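Incident log, support desk, overnight shift.

02:14 A customer reports that sequence design results differ from what the structure should imply. Their input is reproduced verbatim below. On-call engineer (initials T.W.) acknowledged and began investigating.
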């Protein structure tokens, strides 16, 4: 971390929205990931398209995209952004059994889109749970994190593999 100053607090320690009006408009991209661990039978329902509530991945993809667009309504002090692109991708895994969820969010703007990517992943994971909870209430979410971000004054960030 290059600067320990908390920008969402003013000199009196009061929360406020950061003024980004003087920042340059740059292309900004953030990629986040998360994982939904589930029983093998639950993953099979997704892969065969036989979940009773319908197409789990299509629904989770739409939910993730909508969540990215509404992040400013969910997270205090986030700026509303004119997002130019959101992608949500799913990768099934066998060890552990489940789905890796990845969100990429892009904007040409004055502030980053890390929170939008993280919110998209979180809501996509929650939607997968909602679509399948009748058959697997033991699903867990983990490893939700920022993988990469670019653009803006703070430059490029890439997470280390863990």
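02:41 Re-run completed on a clean worker. Output:
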């Amino acid at each position: 971390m290059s600067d320990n100053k908390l920008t969402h607090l003013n000199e009196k320690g009061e929360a406020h929205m950061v003024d980004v009006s003087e920042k340059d408009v740059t292309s900004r991209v953030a990629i986040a990931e998360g994982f939904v661990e589930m029983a093998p039978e639950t993953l099979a329902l997704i892969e065969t398209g036989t979940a009773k509530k319908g197409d789990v991945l299509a629904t989770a993809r739409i939910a993730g995209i909508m969540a990215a667009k509404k992040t400013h309504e969910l997270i205090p002090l986030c700026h509303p952004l004119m997002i130019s692109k959101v992608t949500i991708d799913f990768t099934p895994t066998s060890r552990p059994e489940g789905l890796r969820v990845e969100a990429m969010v892009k904007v040409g703007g004055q502030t980053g889109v890390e929170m939008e990517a993280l919110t998209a992943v979180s809501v996509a994971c929650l939607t997968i749970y909602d679509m399948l909870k009748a058959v697997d209430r033991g699903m867990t979410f983990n490893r939700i994190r920022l993988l990469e971000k670019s653009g803006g004054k703070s430059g490029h960030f890439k997470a280390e593999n863990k």
